[in-house]
């Protein structure tokens, strides 16, 4: 994997009077898990669309290594967007086309605990299971960056926790660069190597904080809560962004 540099000098929508993003510089280290935390409407969707190459109407540049290009992305949305007329396995096979390897799909299904459900159609999946399929689908294409836009926001707390743990397990087995958007600071601390706090109107990076909690302790809610309290105390600037 390659380091990615995102420099957005200005992104202003044609009908808007002020920029949505200004002077935003983000460096994504190879295989790093980054959580973007910011208030509603701060421009996260705009940013992800620019990184994905869906919006080219901005002043700035994206560098993948030394190349001016867009990274190959896997996109995981709030809605898993599975095709209802295809089984779990067929939904995964679809993104791989002719490059598919049955062994890779089997391994991904196993890590995400979906082996038994591979012939099931999406309507019979729980919300947590369908999120797990969408995660497999995104990892399966081996992207240079995985963009995750509040993927667990509609899950209840125990299910979100289980899916987060499986996501991290998969990411540890198959390291990828991840950019995960969330409003939930506890979720961000449980997942991230590095937190980037974003302000609104225009979006700018306000603080960047490395999460010092060992991966083996990320399931410990006391450790997460204690670091959250410490963050809020030592970085008053982030309180207004939550
Ligand atoms: N097509 C558009 N035309 C004009 N302004 C837009 C357009 N899309 C977004 N904006 C503005 O750009 C800013 C960022 O919007 P964006 O949807 O990227 O934020 P967001 O952080 O993803 O929001 P949310 O957290 O609600 O999903 C907002 O002020 C929004 O009103």
From TrEMBL:
Pfam (any one): ABC_tran
Keywords for this protein: ATP-binding, Nucleotide-binding, Transport
Domain ABC transporter: 6-225
Any GO MF annotation of the entry: ATP hydrolysis activity
InterPro entries on file: AAA+_ATPase, ABC_transporter-like_ATP-bd, ABC_transporter-like_CS, ABC_transporter_ATP-bind, P-loop_NTPase
Family statement: Belongs to the ABC transporter superfamily.
This protein's name: Taurine-transporting ATPase
Organism of origin: Methylobacter tundripaludum (strain ATCC BAA-1195 / DSM 17260 / SV96)
């Amino acid at each position: 994997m390659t380091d990615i540099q995102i420099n957005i000098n200005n992104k202003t929508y044609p009908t808007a009077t002020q920029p949505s993003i200004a002077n935003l510089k983000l460096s994504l280290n190879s295989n790093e898990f980054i959580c973007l935390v910011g208030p509603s409407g701060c421009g996260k969707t705009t940013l992800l669309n620019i990184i994905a190459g869906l919006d080219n109407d901005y002043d700035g540049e994206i560098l993948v290594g030394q190349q001016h290009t867009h990274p190959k992305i896997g996109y995981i949305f709030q809605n898993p967007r599975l095709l209802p007329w295809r089984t779990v396995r067929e939904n995964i096979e679809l993104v791989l086309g002719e490059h598919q390897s049955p062994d890779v799909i089997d391994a991904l299904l196993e890590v995400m605990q979906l082996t038994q459900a591979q012939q099931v159609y999406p309507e019979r999946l729980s919300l947590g299971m369908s999120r797990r399929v969408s995660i497999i689908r995104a990892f399966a294409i081996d992207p240079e960056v995985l963009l995750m836009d509040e993927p667990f926001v509609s899950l209840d707390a125990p299910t979100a926790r289980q899916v987060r743990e499986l996501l991290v397990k998969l990411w540890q087995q198959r390291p990828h660069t991840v950019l995960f958007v969330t409003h939930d600071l506890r979720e961000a601390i449980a997942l991230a190597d590095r937190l980037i706090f974003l302000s609104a109107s225009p979006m700018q990076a306000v603080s960047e904080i490395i999460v010092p909690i060992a991966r083996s302790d990320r399931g410990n809610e006391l450790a997460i809560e204690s670091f959250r309290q410490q963050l809020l105390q030592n970085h008053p600037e982030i309180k207004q962004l939550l």
